[in-house]
């Protein structure tokens, strides 16, 4: 994947930094709206911080604990076909071994048996399920287990047409959802309705009509999941917040929706990649239609992207530079992606190749969440320097942890 495709320039990226903890190296990109020549940029390191001086002023970046610049290691490097738009620098970093990682664990990693939990709607933070204690918290087989069940059994599939459902006081963990037994209290906090018939389903009489029993928050009407059986709730991890039940303590204010979706999906992709040793994911809707293809490149990136107006360009700098707030570099997953709705010839070829070769571990999310995730990823792509937005017909983006 050495080739890089040219991308239309979108003005606004002032400074971009990517550090790789595993490689102990980094890439700094400064837009030509901020500095005209390599000599205009001076880099200095501090205690878990990075100071970048440009003609527009000095920018201080907070780095994760234990990450520092190797003094004197920053050197200019060629920017290739983007030399008219960007200045590129390579640098070295030192990474101290610190046990605590500043990362967000998914609910799959935090749920434990014989502990009490409360479930909240992520949209309005209404308490949906109160003081739930599970005797067992068990993982379900991964998303495509039905396809390989013949390899397990020497007789007809014993699981054919059977659902794996939780018993009383069980919690079953899917790749992107929780299966919980429903109780009487749910009638006060959630509503249930049958999903409408899709346009494609109504036009194809030979195709079986699959309508879902959708579960929504009674307070804000946000879709939470499905009723997969009369006594079983399927709650997607992007729709609920799960916290230990501690007295009358109220949960913290809900995160911005886009931030919550980004962190939740990023944490889960990282866990699935580590446990399954896979780097290809097919984000799908509940009816099995591929929506987005993700190729995880690395999980040790630390990134910061600062718009030009927050750095100060030469053309807008007064004689006395104003102080600039200190942004924070954050851990992130670096990935390539293709939206399955993309009509480009090369993108369609990629989608077809993934489908034919069965590449991509299925990650099932509601359609609305798939659309939210694509917006988050597209927004990330738009904040990257022009030289980093595309690679071999894929688009590039980061998901913050």
From TrEMBL:
It comes from the Eukaryota. One of its GO terms (cellular component) is nucleus. InterPro entries: UBQ-conj_enz_E2-bd_prot. Its EC number is 2.3.2.26. GO terms for molecular function: cyclin binding; ubiquitin conjugating enzyme binding; ubiquitin protein ligase activity. E3 ubiquitin-protein ligase which accepts ubiquitin from specific E2 ubiquitin-conjugating enzymes, and transfers it to substrates, generally promoting their degradation by the proteasome. Independently of its E3 ubiquitin-protein ligase activity, acts as an inhibitor of CPSF3 endonuclease activity by blocking CPSF3 active site. Interacts with UBE2C/UbcH10 (E2 ubiquitin-conjugating enzyme). In vitro, interacts with cyclin-B. This is E3 ubiquitin-protein ligase E3D. It comes from Seriola lalandi dorsalis. The lineage of its organism: Eukaryota, Metazoa, Chordata, Craniata, Vertebrata.
């Amino acid at each position: 994947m050495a080739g890089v495709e040219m991308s239309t320039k979108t003005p606004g990226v002032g400074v971009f930094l990517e550090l790789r903890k595993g490689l102990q190296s980094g890439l700094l990109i400064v837009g030509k709206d901020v500095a005209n020549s390599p000599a205009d940029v001076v880099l200095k390191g501090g205690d878990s911080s990075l100071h970048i001086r440009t003609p527009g002023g000095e920018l201080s970046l907070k780095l994760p604990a234990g990450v520092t610049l190797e003094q004197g290691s920053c050197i200019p490097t060629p920017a290739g076909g983007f030399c008219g738009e960007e200045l590129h620098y390579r640098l070295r970093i030192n990474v101290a071994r610190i046990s605590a990682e500043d990362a967000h664990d998914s609910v799959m990693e935090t749920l434990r048996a014989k502990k009490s939990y409360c479930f909240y709607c992520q949209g309005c933070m209404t308490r949906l399920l109160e003081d739930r204690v599970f005797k067992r918290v068990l993982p379900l087989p991964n998303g495509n287990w039905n396809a390989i069940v013949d390899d397990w059994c020497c007789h007809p599939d014993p699981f054919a047409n059977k659902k794996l459902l939780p018993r009383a006081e069980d919690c079953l963990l899917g790749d992107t959802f929780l299966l919980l037994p429903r109780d009487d209290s749910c009638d006060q906090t959630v509503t249930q309705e049958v999903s409408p018939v899709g346009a494609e389903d109504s036009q194809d009489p030979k195709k079986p009509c699959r309508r879902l029993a959708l579960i929504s928050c009674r307070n804000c009407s946000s879709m939470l999941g499905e009723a997969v059986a009369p006594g079983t709730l399927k709650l997607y991890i992007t729709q609920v917040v799960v916290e230990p039940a501690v007295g009358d303590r109220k949960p913290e204010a809900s995160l911005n929706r886009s931030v919550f979706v980004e962190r939740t999906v990023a944490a889960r992709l990282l866990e699935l990649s580590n446990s399954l040793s896979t780097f290809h994911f097919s984000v799908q809707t509940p009816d099995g239609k591929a929506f987005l293809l993700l190729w995880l490149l690395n999980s040790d990136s630390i990134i910061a992207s600062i718009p030009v107006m927050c750095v100060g360009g030469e053309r807008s700098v007064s004689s006395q530079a104003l102080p600039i707030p200190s942004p924070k570099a954050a851990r992130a997953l670096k990935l390539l992606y293709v939206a399955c709705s993309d009509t480009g010839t090369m993108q369609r070829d990629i989608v077809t190749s993934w489908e034919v070769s069965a590449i991509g571990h299925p990650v099932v999310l509601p359609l609305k969440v798939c659309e939210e995730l694509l917006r988050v990823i597209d927004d990330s792509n738009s904040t990257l320097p022009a030289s980093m937005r595309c690679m071999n017909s894929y688009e590039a983006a980061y998901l913050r942890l």
